Amino acid sequence: MGSMALNGGSTNQALLDAQLELWHSTFAHIKSMALKSALDLHIADAIHHHGDNGATIPQIVSRVTIHSSKIPCLRRLMRLFVATGVFAVHHPPPSGSRDADADEPMYMLTPTSRLLVGSQNNLTALTALVTHPAMVTPFFELGKWLLHELPDPCIFKRAHGRALSLVNDGMLSDSHFIMDIAISECAHVFGGIGSLVDVGGGLGAAAKAISKAFPGVECSVLDFDHVVAKAPSGTKVRYVVGDMFESVPPADAMFFKWVLHDWGDEECTMILKNCRKAIPPREKGGKVIIIDIVVGAGSSDFRHKEIEALFDIYMMIVNGKERNEQEWKKIFLRAGFSDYKITPVLGVRSIIEVYP
Ligand code: SAH
Fold it and tell me: Most buried among 154, 306, 327, 329, by the most CB within 10 A?
C-alpha cells in the first residue's frame, strides 16, 4: 500500500500538506501575474460585455486579442481564475447538440472581478499599478536590501535609482472606492467640521468626495507643486502647494489617506506636530483623521491578517510601514495629541480620529 510508506501514513500526509502550503507561497506570483494578464487582455470587460449570463471562451475571444493557437492556454488560465475566485464558471448539462458551442462552459464575473469593470468601484488602475513591473521587480532584491544598514535607500530607490512618486490613476481609483465607503460608514467623523486639509492629498479625489458629501466643509489639498500642477480645475477644492514637513495650512481637521504609512515614526511625528499647530482645540472641532491600516484592529480572519502583513512588507518599497494600535499611539502622544479613536470599518483599513 502506497500510503504505508516508511514514514508512516500520517507523516506522509503531513509532509504533503506542508509541501502544499509551500507551493502556495512559492506560486503566489503566478496568481498575481495571471491577474495582470487578465487586465492586459481586458478579460473581465469581455465577460461583462456579454451580460449577466456570462460568456463562453469563443465569446470572450471575440473581444480579446489573442492568437488563435493560444485559445487552449486561455482555457487553462480561466481555470485558474475560477480556482482563485476571480471568475466563476457554469458548465451546461450535456446537450447532445452537434453545435460544439452549446456545451461550452459559461464564465461569469464574481464580486472580485466586478471591481475590474464599469465606471463605479473600479479598481483596475490600482491593480494595474501594484502588478506593474516597476512595482514588482524591486521585491526581487528584498533579501539583499535587508543586508544594508538603515537609513538605506528604500527598495524602490535601490531598484530604480529614483524616489517613487505615486500620483496617478491607481491612487485615484482607490480614493473613489474607499471614500464612498468611508463617507457612508463614518459620516459622523466629518460632521461638524468647518474646514479640512487633505495632507498629501495628491490629485484631490478624497477631498472632492468629502466636499461633495459635506458641502459645508471647506476642503483643501496640500501637496507638492508638481502634483498640484496636475490637479483638475473647476472644483470647489482649493489646492495648496507646500511641504508637510515644513507646515500645513490651518483648518479644523487634517486628513491623511495612505500617507503616514509611507513614513517612519520620526517623520510621522514631525508631520503630526505640524498638524497639532494648525488645528484648534478639541472643543472647537480640532482633529486629525487618518485612513490607514491599524494592524490587528479589524477582523482576525487569516486572509485579513495575511493582507495586513503583506501590506506591511509592501511598504518597505518606500521605507514605510503598517502600524498596530500601540505604534500609532506612540506617535500620536509624541506629537502632542491626547486621545484617539480607531474605527475599523474600511476592510483592511481603519479610520482613526486623533484629538489634541
Ligand atoms: N492621499 C492620496 C495620495 C497618497 S500618495 C491618496 O490616498 O490617493 C502620497 C502623497 O503624499 C503624494 O501625493 C505625495 O506627493 C505627497 N507627499 C509626499 N511628501 C509630501 C510632503 N513633504 N508634503 C506634501 N505632500 C507630500
Answer: 154
Q: Is 167 in the pocket of ligand 1 (CB under 6 A)?
A: yes
Q: What's the confidence (pLDDT) of residue 101?
A: 76
User: Ligand 1 pocket check: which of 255, 259, 270, 272 to mutate, most ligand atoms within 8 Å of Cβ?
Assistant: 259
Least Cα distance to 195 among 171, 176, 211, 177 occurs for: 211
Domains held by the chain: number: 2
Q: What is the pLDDT of residue 3?
A: 47
- The protein residue whose alpha carbon is closest to atom 22 in ligand 1 is 243
pLDDT higher than 90, residue 180? yes
Closest Cα to atom 1 of ligand 1: 201
Where in the sequence is the domain holding 326, given as residue range(s)? 133-355
Domain at 80, CATH number: 1.10.10.10
- Give how far the C-alpha of residue 325 lies from the chain's centroid of Cα atoms, to the nearest Å: 20
**So what's the pLDDT on residue 9?**
64
Whole-number Å distance, alpha carbon 307 to ligand 1 midpoint, is: 23
